[in-house]
């Protein structure tokens, strides 16, 4: 049994949900978990304060369809950079899309330069905190293969 | 009751008829932190100061905190263990003292390094708790948190030998900030206060975070006071109200209206201290000016509000909180072990909490009148006490709707005018 809240359905490749390295907020994670399940995804929710090593180990072990990093405590940009740099050191994970979203800085939404830096470091998409950000994320999900809904 | 320290300051203000107001302020630059403390002290209100720590320091990642200091990366709080002691002493110099005590706020399940750092610069007031700084705050097992908090209380309590009166505030009245019915909030706050007391702390405050319904909140504070009078004899204690700790209104009028309601709750319920939120809450870390404006608004509302506490017993919240506290105390003479057993068996169970040491069977909802209620009590000993209305599994939109209930009510974009509530 997984120690993490997980959608029952062992077959499909899951989506990993992870809080930022230093971020203990969890309502964002609970929300994303439900949203992903409603889009037909199996979710493994790694919870808050996810260290790089744990995320890498889980990713290598589960071969997820997508990794979603969520951070709202204001350290999201720096923590997110660290996480993705370490993840992208693993060629086995090259094909796994990784996205990040939330309240990524302490002074409001990140600027264009920061978003570009996050993408350059290895994120496939960066979503902002607005309803538009969540809407864009929903569109991304609609493009992913879904598990069969019963 | 020695008359010195944080608790005594708050007591004197209360006796003089004034509510103490306090920010949640913390910035990484020592210059800005000092400016923030000075502005808090000099504001037109009875205030105490706050140094809120950054998230790296909270989770014990001191290397990252130090690196950020070296590289000048701004953090979401003050890295007390990342700055030199002399730097922090200079931040506090001529500010912290009997007329303006400063409290360190953190969020750590293993706060020994924080307590050492704060006592080393002459501070003696902080907050948290073995449950409330563990379950909603990351990955530390509850068992470890209880041990760390025992050691940390004892570390702080040792200051009493030199004539100080160290102060600790429970964070238990907040837990996940939102959607936890008040009976459980009150119970955890009381249990954490007892935990502090058993480990040598004699000046304590118990928290309660404003929730969705003013009447229910007033009942909760009354229940909290009654239970503290019963379970904290021979202790200097007071109640601290937190302005709403969930999704905050996005409009200026909404933010101030909600903060004003928190100030009314604090004064009317006979509480001694209020921690404010600012207009920036929904978006980013607030500026010093935004904090000062929040303190002054809260103080102004407080000044025109009368004390009118409710009867403590006889309410739903009192019945639930009493049942939970008594059930936990009956589990073990050692309160730390009792808390561990309580969570392991689901006797205490925080709704929507992801921590592996939380049972996770309980669920809550906001009823048509805006009160926070249980839809599932899991294995908590509340059968026949709580009014439970079972519900089907929640969707993401419904969750966001419940989390945004207060924000929506106070923002009232559609009406374009301040909410009159
Ligand atoms: C509740 C709360 C808490 C609770 C958390 C309980 C818990 N276990 O979750 C408690 C009290 C414990 C807490 C603690 C702290 N908090 Co807090 N907290 C909040 C608060 C009030 C609400 C957050 C919430 O519950 N949101 C509900 C969820 C559903 O919404 P959300 O988080 O906004 O996420 C939405 C979007 O961001 C987006 N999203 C998020 N992630 C992702 C990812 C992707 C891929 C996508 C597409 C979208 C997306 O989708 C969500 C739905 O719209 C906010 C302020 C606010 N928003 O009003 C502050 C806030 C997030 N906290 C903040 C801070 C700084 C802290 C602390 C560091 C203490 C401090 N200095 O004040 C500590 C954190 C310690 C740590 N190690 O991280 C700051 C962050 C500042 C910033 N980003 O600039 C905020 C904004 C308050 C503020 N203005 O200062 N907090």
Detailed description of the structure:
The complex is a heterodimer of chains A (150) and B (421). Chain A has 150 residues and is of the alpha/beta class. Chain A has 5 helices and 5 strands. Chain A has a domain at 21-31 and 39-126: Rossmann fold (3-Layer(aba) Sandwich), CATH 3.40.50. Chain A has a 5-stranded parallel β-sheet with strand order 2-1-3-4-5, with helices on both faces. In chain A, helix 3 (76-87) links the parallel strand 3 (66-71) and strand 4. In chain A, helix 2 (52-62) crosses helix 3 (76-87) and helix 3 (76-87) runs parallel beside helix 4 (112-121). Chain A is globular, with a radius of gyration of 14 Å. By secondary structure, chain B is an alpha/beta fold. Chain B has one domain (6-303): TIM Barrel (Alpha-Beta Barrel). Chain B has 15 helices and 10 strands. In chain B, the strands form 3 sheets. In chain B, strands 1-8-7-6-5-4 form a 6-stranded parallel β-sheet. Chain B has a two-stranded parallel sheet with strand order 2-3. In chain B, strands 9-10 form a two-stranded antiparallel ribbon. In chain B, helix 8 (182-198) links the parallel strand 5 and strand 6. The interface between A and B is medium-sized, with 28 and 35 residues. Cobalamin sits between chains A (22-28, 31-32, 68, 70, 72-74, 99, 101-103, 106, 127, 129, 133-134, 137) and B (24, 26, 52, 55, 58-59, 76-77, 107, 136, 174, 176-177, 245-248, 280-282, 284-285, 400, 403). Chain B: InterPro entries: Cbl-dep_enz_cat, Glu_mut_E. Chain B: Keywords: Cobalamin, Cobalt, Isomerase. Chain B: Pfam families: Met_asp_mut_E. Chain B: It comes from Streptomyces pyxinicus.
């Amino acid at each position: 049994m997984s120690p993490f809240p997980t959608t029952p359905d062992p077959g499909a490749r899951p989506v990993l949900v992870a809080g930022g390295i230093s971020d203990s907020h969890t309502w964002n994670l609970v929300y994303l978990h439900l949203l992903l399940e409603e889009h037909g995804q199996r979710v493994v929710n790694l919870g808050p304060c996810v260290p790089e090593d744990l995320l890498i180990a889980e990713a290598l072990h589960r071969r997820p369809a997508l990794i979603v990093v969520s951070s709202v405590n204001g350290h999201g940009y720096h923590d997110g950079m660290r996480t993705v740099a370490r993840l992208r050191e693993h060629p086995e994970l090259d094909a796994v899309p990784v996205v990040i979203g939330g309240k990524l800085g302490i002074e409001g939404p990140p600027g264009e330069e920061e978003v570009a830096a996050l993408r350059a470091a290895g994120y496939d998409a960066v979503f902002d905190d607005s309803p538009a950000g969540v809407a864009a994320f929903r569109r991304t999900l609609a493009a992913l293969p879904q598990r069969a809904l019963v | 009751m020695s008359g010195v320290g944080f608790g005594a300051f708050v007591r004197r203000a209360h006796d003089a008829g004034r509510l103490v107001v306090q920010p949640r302020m913390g910035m990484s630059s020592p210059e800005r932190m000092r400016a923030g403390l000075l502005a808090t002290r000099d504001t037109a209100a009875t205030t105490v100061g706050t140094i809120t720590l950054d998230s790296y320091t909270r989770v014990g990642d001191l290397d990252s905190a130090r690196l950020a200091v070296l590289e000048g990366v701004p953090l979401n709080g003050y890295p007390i263990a990342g700055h030199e002691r002399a730097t922090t002493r200079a931040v506090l110099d001529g500010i912290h003292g009997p007329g303006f005590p400063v409290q360190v706020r953190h969020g750590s399940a293993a706060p020994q390094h924080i307590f050492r750092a704060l006592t080393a610069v002459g501070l003696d007031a902080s907050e948290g708790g073995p449950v409330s700084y563990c379950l909603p705050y990351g990955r530390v097992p509850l068992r470890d948190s209880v041990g760390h908090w025992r050691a940390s209380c004892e570390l702080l309590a040792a200051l009493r030998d030199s004539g100080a009166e160290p102060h600790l505030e429970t964070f238990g009245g907040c837990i996940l900030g939102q959607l936890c019915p008040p009976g459980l909030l009150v119970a955890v706050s009381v249990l954490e206060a007892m935990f502090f007391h058993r480990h040598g702390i004699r000046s304590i405050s118990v928290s309660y975070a404003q929730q969705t319904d003013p009447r229910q909140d007033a009942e909760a504070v009354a229940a909290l006071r009654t239970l503290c009078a019963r379970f904290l004899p021979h202790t200097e204690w007071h109640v601290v109200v937190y302005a709403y700790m969930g999704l905050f209104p996005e409009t200026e009028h909404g933010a101030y209206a909600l903060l004003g309601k928190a100030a009314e709750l604090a004064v009317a319920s006979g509480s001694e201290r209020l921690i404010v939120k600012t207009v920036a809450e929904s978006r980013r870390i607030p500026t010093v000016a935004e904090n000062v404006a929040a303190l002054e608004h809260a103080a102004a509302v407080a000044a025109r509000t009368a004390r009118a506490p409710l009867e403590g017993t006889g309410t739903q919240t009192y019945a639930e909180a009493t049942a939970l506290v008594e059930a936990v105390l009956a589990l073990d003479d050692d309160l730390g072990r009792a808390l561990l057993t309580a969570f392991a068996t689901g006797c205490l169970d925080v709704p929507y909490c992801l921590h592996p040491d939380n049972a996770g069977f309980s669920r809550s909802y906001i009823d048509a009148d805006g009160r926070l209620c249980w839809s599932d009590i899991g294995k908590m000993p509340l059968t026949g006490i709580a009014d439970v209305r079972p519900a089907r599994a929640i969707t993401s939109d419904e969750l966001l709707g419940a989390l945004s209930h207060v924000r929506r009510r106070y923002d009232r974009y559609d009406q374009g005018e301040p909410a009159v509530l």
